[in-house]
Design the sequence.
């Protein structure tokens, strides 16, 4: 608490600038990336679907952004046909 | 060679319509042939700001539907004879706003005018996309305030991805127009400085329009501010911006209100 609150200079524009810089760098990255994720998902689905029957909803692509390394996680759920276990060799 | 401008922002209420009217009038006042086009279908207001609300018979949607010819919907300004208005419809028939239809109207306007200025609706949906779709130059109206700057950033992303120019791999020419700016508050650190806005958006500046009572006075009487009070600070700022659009090298000075001696002596708060 300042002794002279009346004289305290509130530089709110600086706070605005810093908040915007942080927010926009994040938004630009995620928005730019969303297209990439959609493309990856479709192409991965196409490759997998050549060999096994798999539905669009069963392919998940996500990116975990770390400070130095980001992880690209691809999850494909392959349902067993009619409850049967998959053939050996898969 | 005609130039098609879109005046856009993302956020509503930042001054798109005011700026469209003022820039259109400023260009027409020096003899350029200008049409201002209202793309805000269902919520038209450019007619009102231009003082032509009682003269609207046909509109953009009528033209797109083929009901009337373009020349029947164009309204000539009563004060500046090289200034024209193409109003939006007041109905909510937004489906009539098709890409092919808009492309045709813009093509025809290009052949008739030096400047086609499209007043975009707020938001980032269909109407806003079509308003920017065929533009050569975009003017992004931004207030020195966080939500407006954020929305401008989103709109810049759309201009670089979803316009015809961008899809052809060409560079979309973009300019920031800062409106409602208060240089004193910016100097005191109470308002984002124009330099900060430009740095954050990494887009060149077209002009800085100072906050002024003259803007409301102008819209009250249905006149572009460059016409209602040409000596006022916002009018001079808009005239400078229009000259920069025309390719003139105009130094970036924020105009201030000229105060008479009596104002200085007796009206310390007079604008």
Sequence:
């Amino acid at each position: 608490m300042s002794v002279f609150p009346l004289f305290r200079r509130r530089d709110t524009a600086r706070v605005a600038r810093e908040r915007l810089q942080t927010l926009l760098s994040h938004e630009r990255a995620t928005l730019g990336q969303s297209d990439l994720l959609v493309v990856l998902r479709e192409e991965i689905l196409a490759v997998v679907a050549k060999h096994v029957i798999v539905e669009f909803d069963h392919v998940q692509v996500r990116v975990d952004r770390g400070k130095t390394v980001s992880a690209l996680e691809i999850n494909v759920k392959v349902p067993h046909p009619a409850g049967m276990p998959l053939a050996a060799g898969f | 060679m005609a130039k098609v401008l879109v005046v856009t922002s993302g956020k509503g209420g930042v001054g798109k319509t005011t700026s469209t009217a003022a820039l259109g009038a400023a260009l027409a006042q020096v003899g350029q042939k200008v049409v201002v086009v209202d793309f805000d279908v269902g919520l038209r207001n450019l007619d009102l700001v231009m003082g032509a609300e009682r003269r609207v018979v046909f509109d953009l949607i009528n033209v797109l539907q083929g009901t009337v010819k373009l020349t029947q919907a164009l309204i000539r300004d009563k004060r500046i004879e090289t200034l024209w208005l193409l109003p939006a419809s007041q109905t909510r028939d937004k489906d009539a706003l098709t890409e092919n239809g808009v492309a045709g109207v813009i093509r025809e306007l290009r052949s008739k005018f030096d400047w086609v200025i499209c007043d975009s609706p707020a938001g980032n949906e269909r109407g806003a996309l079509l308003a920017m779709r065929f533009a050569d130059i975009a003017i992004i109206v931004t207030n020195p305030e966080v939500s407006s700057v954020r929305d401008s950033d989103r709109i810049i992303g759309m201009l670089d991805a979803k316009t015809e120019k961008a899809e052809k791999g060409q560079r979309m020419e973009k300019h920031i127009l800062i409106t409602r700016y208060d240089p004193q508050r910016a100097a005191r650190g109470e308002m984002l400085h124009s330099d900060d806005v430009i740095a954050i958006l990494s887009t060149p500046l077209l002009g800085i329009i100072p906050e002024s009572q003259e803007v409301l006075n102008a819209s009250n009487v249905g006149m572009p501010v460059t016409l209602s009070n040409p000596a006022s600070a916002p009018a001079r700022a808009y005239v400078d911006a229009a000259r920069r659009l025309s390719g003139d090298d105009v130094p970036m000075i924020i105009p201030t209100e000229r105060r008479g001696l009596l104002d200085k002596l007796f009206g310390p708060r007079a604008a």
In short: Residues 17 and 34 of chain A are 26 Å apart (CA to CA). The helical segments of chain A are 12-49. Chain A touches chain B at residues 9-14, 16-17, 19-21, 23-24, 27-28, 31 (CB under 8 Å).
